[in-house]
Amino acid sequence: MSDIPENDQPMPLVSHLTELRTRLLRCIAAIFIIFAGLFAFTQQIYTLVSTPLREYLPVGATMIATDVASPFLTPLKLTMMVSLFIAIPVILHQIWGFIAPGLYKHEKRIAVPLLISSIFLFYAGMAFAYFLVFPLVFKFFAAATPEGVAMMTDISSYLDFVMTLFFAFGVAFEIPVAVVLLVWIGIVDVKYLRKIRPYVIIGCFVVGMILTPPDIFSQTLLAIPMWMLFEIGILFGSLVSKNKRGNDADEQPADQNAQPPAPHA
Fold first, then answer.
1. How is residue 56 annotated by DSSP?
2. So what's the pLDDT on residue 4?
3. 159 and 74 in contact (C-beta within 8 Å)?
4. How far apart are the C-alpha atoms of 230 and 14, rounded to whole Å?
5. Which runs of consecutive H residues, i.e. helices, occur in the chain?
6. Which residue among 63, 68, 130, 233 is the one 20 to 30 A from 251 at the CA level?
7. Superkingdom, according to UniProt (predicted)?
8. CA atoms within 13 A on the CB side of 149
9. In 3-state terms, what secondary structure has residue 265?
């Protein structure tokens, strides 16, 4: 008879796929439920998101819609994206519920804080973009508009622009979580991360150049926080590394005492 508890028996592949489908359906349902609640406020949501640009438009200038359906479809598209962003805690919770049964207790102890931190950091990155980056970038664009050129931004182009920045900053703020995971899994150590710091700084500016629009301000405003977050990741990674070494040291005597006793003469 097997010594494995009944609840720890390996699940067949069909059961895994069934559970995965169920959790995916829950994620999709959560997005559509949030979208249904926000549908009546699509115009207000777009007005809120476009505020950082409209505040710096010249007197008498407005945003425009170049496509016939843009006044309706663009706010609808934004509301769907907002619903996805709001549903991120539900999505991550479903992911956690799917992978948690395969984790050990000590892995769960660090995975839960990382999960909560990833949610908080993603929203923090979006807030950083909206309240700090957008005003600076749009103020620069408005001031750099050539004389005789009317700054009248298309609402669909603006949505693509801000969604790119929202996603870029949200993902960039996940750097501490990624660094801690790499240290925890053992792919890299803290000494190596400190050694490659100059290359990481250059890489932050390269990533900022790729993910943001082609202006030096938004690139710098993404690259510098990425560097700072990398340093925060090194700090917490060192704490995780020390804790891991401490756990290994505590387990060492137990392994030695576990040796079978010598036979009696």
1. T
2. 42
3. yes
4. 40
5. 13-38, 42-54, 70-86, 88-99, 105-128, 134-144, 155-172, 175-185, 190-195, 197-211, 216-257
6. 233
7. Bacteria
8. 9
9. coil
Look up residue 238 and give its two tokens: 């060192």
Q: Contact 213/164 with Cβ under 8 angstroms?
A: yes
User: Mean pLDDT by 10-residue block, N- to C-terminus, for the chain (265 residues)?
Assistant: 46 79 94 96 94 87 89 94 93 85 76 86 92 86 82 91 89 88 83 90 86 73 88 87 64 48 48
Distance CA 218, CA 134 (A): 9
Note the Cα 115 to chain centre separation in Å: 10
Q: Among 201, 192, 246, 256, which residue's Cα sits nearest to residue 225? A: 201
- Cα separations (Å) of 195 from 21, 191, 210? 43, 6, 24
The pLDDT value given to residue 38: 95
Which residues touch 55 (CB under 8 Å, ≥6 apart)?
135, 138
Supply the Cα-derived Rg of the chain in whole angstroms. 25
DSSP string of 179-234, one letter each residue: HHHHHHHTSS-HHHHHHTHHHHHHHHHHHHHHHS-S-HHHHHHHHHHHHHHHHHHH
Instruction: Give which of 152, 153, 151, 27 is closest to 98, Cα–Cα.
Output: 27
In one letter, which amino acid is 97?
A: G
Q: In terms of Cα–Cα distance, which of 247, 6, 5 is closest to 107?
A: 247
Residue whose token pair is 């690139």: 219
Closest CA to 132 of 94, 165, 106: 165
